[in-house]
Amino acid sequence: MDKKASELIGLPVVTFNRGTKIYDVEDMILDPQRRQVLALVVENKTMFHSAKALPFGRIQAIGPNAIIIADGKAIIDVDRDPVLRSLDNKQVVIGLRVLTDDGRKLGEVSDLLIDDKTGEIKGYYVSIGKVLSVTQGTRWLPTDRVLSMGQRIMYVPADVAKEFDEQLGGWSGALDQAGSRVRTAGAKLNEQLEQLGGQVRQTLPQRADSMIAGKTAHGTITAPDGTVIVQEGEVITQEHVAAAREANRLPQVFMAAGAGPAQQNLNSLGEKANSSLSDIRTEAKELWEQLTGRYTSIVDDADSKAMQRRIKYALGRPASRVILDPEDNIILNTGDIITNRAVQAARDAGVLDILVESVYVERPKLSLDDLKAPRSGDASLKNNGGDTGGSQARAAERSIADEAAGPAVAPGGTATNS
Q1: How far apart are CA 151 and CA 154, in angstroms?
Q2: How far apart (Å, rounded) are the C-alpha atoms in residues 337 and 315?
């Protein structure tokens, strides 16, 4: 079964032998050449520790709520695997700009579809902008349509632009479906009206005599030439009915007769019409709430989860550039460690996206002095052995230095031993 990358990120990793959660999926390691997910990162790399990953081949099952592995031995250190180490943090797919080979930008990769058995990437979901993605949906890009993939750009053939135009989704697709539903409901309503009208036309002439004869006319009915067929207030007789039928005014006489089965049929017709229209209005209202509520919530949730992963990765790492707020106050200087306080300040200043893109990811080169604490340890020779330990250490250092210097040479050129 295929899974989206966004569905895998954040899933707990549970062991089969103990049934306990040991990690959460934090990222993925991709091979852009093979177009495959090689491993799931369960612990990101730190300054002094390797990242930990779950190779795809060691996964027993991927469910909607958890990833199952045999035991904790399935997790490996990324630095101990040369292939994973070479690819870790080297290829980012989410956010890649999609360009045609003739230079047109089609959008950015927002997600990818993965075979949960092999890790093969089936294709990519391309967002055409946050607003447009909601109104028009994302576009589907099969893997075999990708020409090349770099660190920032994914190239596709020029005709992919036409394929994207033919794909319809988001609000546009939903509204098109809604329009189809409304048209279908309208057609059903018209059909019901036609059927009821036919019933009325068939039964009215047959039952007119018995239904309206003896009723009081509530209005004056005239023939096309102006001749009065029945006067308002008169009791309708068989002669009135016959005259109305001859002058094609029988429906008017029928209506003038007031309440009765005909009025009931009309009321029934009106109730059915109102019910159908009410259903259409309710469906349109629910659809609109769905469009403005759920779709926007999905987009916001996806963006929030992606940002939280990027913040988690950035915390504790140095900034590679100066981060300024809108008033040019310095939030972080180059080399400053990114802290939770700095993240909140950047969020308040509206520059959080700049901060998470300015993380220094190279392994720092530290000297021995950089690794030392400000003072000697309580268990060191200096603090436990007094001056004797220190004298012995200094004597050893002098001995090593003398051996490295070699025999001394006298002014006359003869080597002497001290």
Answers
A1: 8
A2: 8
Radius of gyration, alpha carbons of the chain: 41
Q: Name every residue whose Cβ is closer than 8 Å to that of residue 264 and which is 6 or more positions away in sequence.
A: none
Q: Are strands 97-100 and 153-156 parallel, antiparallel or unpaired?
A: parallel
Residues 38 and 83: beta-carbon distance below 8 Å: yes
Mean pLDDT, all residues of the chain: 76
Cβ neighbours of residue 340 closer than 8 Å, sequence gap 6 or more: 315
Mean pLDDT confidence for 125-133: 67
Are residues 12 and 69 in contact, defined by beta-carbon separation less than 8 angstroms?
Answer: no
Calculate ∠ Cα 20-310-60, nearest 5°.
Answer: 30
Q: What are phi and psi of 250, to 5 degrees?
A: -60, -40
Tokens 């080979």 label which residue? 101
With vertex at residue 73, the alpha carbon angle to CA 70 and CA 74, rounded to the nearest 5 degrees, is 60
**Two tokens at 214?**
């003896």
- Taking CA atoms, 177 is separated from 180, 183, 295, in Å, by 5, 10, 15
pLDDT at 69 over 90: yes
Q: Where does the pLDDT of residue 59 fall: very low under 50, low under 70, confident under 90, or very high at 90 and above?
A: very high
| Predicted local confidence at residue 170, as pLDDT | 47
For 10-75, the DSSP string reads TPEEEETTT--EEEE--EEEEETTTTEEEEEEEE---SSS--EEEEGGGEEEE-SS-EEESSGGG-
Joined together, the tokens standing for residue 131 give 């607003």
| C-alpha 99 chain-centroid distance | 21
**3 state SS of 99:** strand
The helix/strand/coil state of 126 is strand
Query: CA 249, 254, 258: angle at the middle one, nearest 5?
Result: 140
Report the candidate in 379, 326, 381, 380 with the shortest Cα–Cα distance to residue 354: 326
Could you read off the pLDDT of 275-310 as tens digits, one per residue?
A: 666 666 666 666 656 655 554 555 555 567 778 888
Return d(Cα 250, Cα 181) in angstroms, integer: 38
3-state secondary structure of 202: helix
Confirm if 236 and 215 have CB atoms less than 8 A apart: yes
Residues 6+ apart with CB under 8 A from 35: 120, 121, 143, 146
